[in-house]
Every structure is written in C-alpha cells, then in structure tokens.
Amino acid sequence: MNRAIVVAVACAAPALAQPSEFLLIPWGAGNPPTPGSGSIGMYSPQDGTYLGDIVPPDPTRIIFPNCAIIGPDRLIYLSDSVNDAVYRYDLHGNFVDEFLGPDDGLDNVRGLHFLDGDLLVANNPIIGTMVDEENVAVLRFAPDGAEKTPLIPPGSGISAWDIHPSYGGDLIIGDVEALPPPAPVARYTAGGTHVTDIYSASFPTQITDGHEPGTYYGFQFSGLVTIFTDNVSLGTLSLTGLQNAGQGCFALRDGNILGVSFNAGVFVHSADTGARLGTIRTGFGLYGTVSLAQVCWADLTNDGTLDFLDVLAFVVAFAAGEPEADYAAPAGVFDFIDVLVFLDRFAQECP
Ligand SMILES: [Ca+2]
Ligand SMILES: [Ca+2]
C-alpha cells in the first residue's frame, strides 16, 4: 500500500478524535465469563454517547466490575468483585498488572477513589452469602501497594460502594449492606472522621455531583435518585425502568441524567421527571458505576503541560517499542501512524 493511502486511512480513524474528557463505565463478562465480553467503555459526558472501549474485552479479569477510575499515574484502575482484585491497564487498553488482590485482603471489592495519591478501596468481605459486617472497611493503599491505616476501619459496619469527594474536601460514603436497611449516607472528613448523616438509603450504589451547584445525586439499587447537599436531602427522583437495577448515574452536561442498569444497559433520563428519554446501549452486562476521566493523551511526562519533554518521551518510548507510544492500531506495531496520532494529540489542549 502506498504511504499516502495509509495516512489517509489513519486520519479517518476514530482514534484521532479521542476525547480528553469522557465517562468510564465498566461492563462485566458475567460469572462464568462470556467470551468476548468484559470491557471498559468510554461515554460522552455531554450526552452519554458511547465512544468505544478504552479497555477491550478481558473476560477473565473483568467479570463483575464495580468501578473504573484513572489514577495520578495515568493508569486505569478497575475493581472486580468476583476476582477480589484491583487491576491496572494503560491508556491504550493494555493490561499492566494486578495491583491488589486477595493476598492484600481484598474480598468483594467495590468503589475506588484516590486521596492524596493513595488508593481507597471499598472492601466488603463475604461469609457464606452474607457480607461480614465485622470486617467491611474502606482500605487505603500507598502508590507502591503497601497497606496504610484504613480510612474506615473494620468494625465500623460501614459497607461502602462509591466513595465520592464533597465540594469542600470531605468524602461522602453510603452503607450498602446495612442490616436492616436503610442506613445513612454520610459525610466523613478526609481523615475518616464521621461529620454528619445526610439521608437514609437502601443499597446506595453511585454518588455523583448533581446538576445544580452544591448538590449531589445519590443513586440506589431501587432506581431512586436522592438529590442532596452536604447536609440535607432536597428530594428524590425515580429513573424509569431502573427499578432493582440502579447501578450508576451521571449528571450529563446537556441537562439529562445518564442511568446505568446493573444488568440491562446504559440509558438517558430526564432530570425533571426521571422518564427514559433514550437508550445508549443494551444487553446483560453486570455494569459498574460511572466516573469522569480527564486525560491529556500526549502528556507522557504526566506533569499537566505539553512541551518538548513529552515529544522526547514519545521518541524514546517509540524507539524502545513501549506500549505508551503505541497510539494507533495495529497494536504492537510502531509505525508512522502512531507518530501522526501522537502529534495530533500533542496539538490538543490539556483539560
Ligand atoms: Ca508533559
Ligand atoms: Ca501501533
């Protein structure tokens, strides 16, 4: 093939339009895993449009994912509650390692959140078929994987799912497996000290920023969204069709709410009535919660700015055949198209 044709094909490839901001939603492979399933998708924070997978199907690891976030090291961290592990992938979708696993005490792991460079992990050990109330905790791990003092220690009885930062620097955490439900969704300091109970919920899954300044949305498995502030509930909204399947939600920038079903797909809902306005994807999946990711694709030095050092890092990685320089298909092949895509992203602003 003539080079001009190769370049023309590359320029038409969707990879060049890779957004700097997107939503991450993992889609599980089921248990036992379905071959070809189990991936992490990217969705538009504007209107929920599915943009493609950032991590392609990895059905033996992504079986029952709960949360995917991007860490300060530009790696994707994924929790899986069947494998009792936190896996890492690079931004090109390559598996990097098992960052944490059963040997680190992980059991039925759910939400993840970075706090001052450490990874917080909502850990919900199981005895038989029930959550072990004595040992649920929000664990804390240093960047090298060493365990630190837990944010919420075992014995608290707080079985967290999502761990959401408040506007003022606190953390908002629910209690998923309270016996009996409901239990408070509460605000804690960044040191793990309880500040206040905000509202009561049964099986709270996602907590995310609301549309109105100073508000949050708290989603429940029942499909109910509670609109709340740092201190009080302002009201509720039921997302139609997500009853007994409410997993993730996000306040889309077009004014609607993205609703993620535990088992049936990703949908768009009215923020006024909760009515379903559109369908993004369908299919049985064991979906996770939603996180907003901001990626400066060409910032290979990871310092938030683009300069000559990023170009140098690319050249070094390209020459060494390292995955971080593998910007375009075919994966594992380092050619002119990888250079073109890098340059295209270098020309974009960092978010
Ligand atoms: Ca840089
Ligand atoms: Ca390539």
Tell me what you see in this structure.
The structure is a single chain. With 351 residues, the chain is mainly β. It is built from three helices and 26 strands. It has helices at 3-12, 308-320, 336-346, and strands at residues 21-27, 39-43, 50-55, 65-70, 76-80, 85-89, 95-100, 109-115, 118-123, 126-127, 130-131, 137-141, 147-152, 163-165, 171-173, 183-188, 194-201, 204-209, 216-220, 224-228, 233-238, 246-251, 257-261, 265-269, 276-282, 291-294. It has a four-stranded antiparallel sheet, with no helix packed on it. A hairpin with a 5-residue loop joins strand 4 and strand 5. Helix 1 packs across helix 3. It is globular and about 60 Å long. The model is unreliable at 1-16 (pLDDT under 50).
How would you summarize the topology of this molecule?
Blueprint: H1 3-12, E1 21-27, E2 39-43, E3 50-55, E4 65-70, E5 76-80, E6 85-89, E7 95-100, E8 109-115, E9 118-123, E10 126-127, E11 130-131, E12 137-141, E13 147-152, E14 163-165, E15 171-173, E16 183-188, E17 194-201, E18 204-209, E19 216-220, E20 224-228, E21 233-238, E22 246-251, E23 257-261, E24 265-269, E25 276-282, E26 291-294, H2 308-320, H3 336-346
Antiparallel strand pairs: 1-2, 1-26, 2-3, 4-5, 5-6, 6-7, 8-9, 9-12, 10-11, 12-13, 14-15, 15-16, 16-17, 18-19, 19-20, 20-21, 22-23, 23-24, 24-25
Helix pairs in contact: 1-3
Bound molecules: calcium ion (CA) (2 copies).
